[in-house]
Structure formats: structure tokens, C-alpha cells
Design goal:
Layout lengths: L1 H23 L2 E6 L6 E6 L9 E6 L5 E7 L4 E6 L8 H16 L8 E6 L4 H8 L14 H4 L22 E4 L2 E4 L8 H13 L3 E7 L3 E4 L8 H14 L3 E2 L11 H7 L4 E6 L7 H14 L3
Parallel strand pairs: 5-6, 5-9, 9-12, 10-11
Antiparallel strand pairs: 1-2, 3-4, 4-6, 7-8, 10-12
């Protein structure tokens, strides 16, 4: 009996050690915000998650999960991103959740060679400021006044994440006529660093980022011209959806933009701007998504 007890204790210890080293296999990156002096740890998954369809790619400045959801099993990955401006552009996250529901209900729409990844809320801190939660929500949960949603544009460090990427990055950027923080350095924010690490690790074939509100499909570039495939994506999504197509966003000067950073890395990327801050324009965007799935079908 004593021998059995000893064996049992050894087995338990081995299991505990196995769990410990599994947890330690995730790599953590510390990000220091020079404006606040605080240090944020962004965890990057380096092991296969328990649920292969879900990956937590990092944490927000406020410690909330940034989650990627995967559909299909192909080797060619298309990445869709919503909520980079959090609660100010909450309808982009709501649209992303609609896309996820549709893909889950219609798995056969994804060609065998493709995998579709959706990051519905890149800025959970900003969404949390407006909606009160970073999980699923409905349009009725969101204040209708734009004055109430503006604070939700920024993350927990009050940085505009779409001014924190490495294309023409500056510490201060412009949003319309306002000056906004671009962060202490390019990728100083855990959210932008998390998606950077994900993209550089997974190397998606193309990226679509949803914004609001201007109503159009915009190509990306970072002083290297528009990639031919980016032009093809812009035109395919625009033609199917009915949004107008544009070669660049030129309403005002943009620094540190995510899709332009992707262009710098020669990854085809487009910005899809919804027409207003409340509608998801589901029919238009579903048509655009289907066009891209068809474009990348072998």
C-alpha cells in the first residue's frame, strides 16, 4: 500500500510539473509606456491552444484578452480585423461578430485551401469604455451620442492604436482636426504589438481591417506604391459590396496606420470603412467577403 501511495504522489508531481512548463512555454513581452511610466506585459501564444479554433494573441493595456477566431483548415489565411478604434467604431466589432456567426453556421462557404481568421475586438479597452464589456454585445447596448463614444477610440493608455504602427509613425498623430497620441514608440502598445507578432508569425495572405465612417474600400501603401494584389482586393471587395474604391485615404494626413504598415511589409491589405457609426451594412460586407473567398480559391 505504501508503495502505491508513493507512486501516486510521483505521478501527481509529474503532472504538476508538466502543466507548469506548458504555461511557461508562452512568451511574454514587456511594453513600457513612456507617457505613464507603466509596464504592460503582452503574452504571445507559442503553443497550440486547447481550442484550436481560438487563439488569445495578447492582452490589452487594461489586461483584457485580444482573441482571434479561426474558421476552415486551409494553409492560406485571410485575416479580418474589427474594433481597432474600440467603442468609437463599435459597429466594426459588431460586424466582425456577425461574420463569425455566419462562418460558424456556414462552414462550407470556406474553400478547402483557406483559413479565415477574425479578430473582432483589437481594442477591448476602448470598447469597454463605451459598451461596458469586451464580450458579445448588441447595438442597443451602445450610446447613440458620438460625444459619449469618442473616448472609446483610444486604448487604456489613451493611445490611438491606428497611429501606433511602423509606417510614418510619430508620437503625435492627427484624427480629423484633433491631435492624438501615437504612443511612445511604434508598437509601444500591447494591442498593436500583439497583432504585429501574430501577423509576422502566421504570415496571412491578405488582411482586411474595418473602420467607420466614410463608406468606401481603401488600398494601402507606405511610400512603395499600391501592390497589384492590393488593387485586385480593393476592386473585388468594392465591386461586390457596392462601396466605392479608392487608392488611398487622403482626407487628412495619417501616421502610424495599420494597413499602411502591412503594405510596408508587402502584405496585401485594405481598409473597409462603413458608412456610419451605427450600421454594420451586413449585406454589403458579406458580398465583399464572398468575393475575396472566391478570389483566393485554388
Amino acid at each position: 500500500m505504501t508503495k502505491r501511495i508513493i507512486i501516486g504522489i510521483v505521478v501527481v508531481i509529474l503532472i504538476i510539473l508538466g502543466v507548469y512548463y506548458f504555461i511557461r512555454s508562452s512568451k511574454s513581452v514587456e511594453v513600457v509606456n513612456n507617457q505613464t511610466g507603466t509596464t504592460t506585459t503582452s503574452t504571445i501564444a507559442t503553443t497550440t491552444p486547447a481550442n484550436k479554433d481560438v487563439t488569445v494573441i495578447g492582452k490589452s493595456a487594461g489586461g483584457l484578452d485580444i482573441t482571434a477566431y479561426h474558421y476552415g483548415t486551409g494553409n492560406t489565411e485571410l485575416l479580418f480585423v474589427g474594433g481597432i478604434h474600440g467603442g468609437y467604431e463599435w459597429n466594426t466589432s459588431l460586424l466582425a461578430f456577425q461574420v463569425m456567426d455566419y462562418l460558424k453556421a456556414n462552414p462550407n462557404i470556406i474553400p478547402a485551401n483557406l483559413k479565415v481568421t477574425v479578430i473582432p475586438v483589437l481594442n477591448p479597452d476602448g470598447l469597454n469604455k463605451v459598451v461596458g464589456t469586451s464580450t458579445r454585445f448588441a447595438a442597443s447596448d451602445v450610446p447613440t451620442s458620438e460625444a459619449k463614444t469618442v473616448p472609446g477610440r483610444f486604448n487604456g493608455n489613451n493611445v490611438d492604436l491606428n497611429r501606433n504602427f511602423d509606417c510614418d509613425w510619430q508620437t503625435e498623430g492627427k484624427w480629423q482636426s484633433q491631435t492624438v497620441s501615437g504612443g511612445a514608440t511604434a508598437f509601444s502598445e500591447p494591442e498593436s504589438l500583439a497583432v504585429k507578432n501574430y501577423i509576422e508569425t502566421q504570415n496571412p495572405k491578405a488582411v482586411v481591417v474595418w473602420y467607420s465612417a466614410a463608406g468606401g474600400v481603401y488600398s494601402s501603401s507606405c511610400h512603395n506604391g499600391v501592390l497589384p494584389e492590393t488593387k485586385a482586393l480593393t476592386n473585388a471587395f468594392a465591386k461586390a459590396s457596392g462601396y466605392p474604391a479608392f487608392e488611398q485615404f487622403n482626407f487628412y494626413e495619417i501616421t502610424g496606420d495599420m494597413v499602411n504598415w502591412l503594405a510596408k511589409k508587402e502584405i496585401p491589405a485594405i481598409s473597409v470603412l462603413l458608412t456610419n457609426h451605427s450600421d454594420t451594412e451586413w449585406t454589403k460586407n458579406l458580398a465583399g467577403i464572398k468575393a475575396l473567398l472566391k478570389y483566393y480559391t485554388n
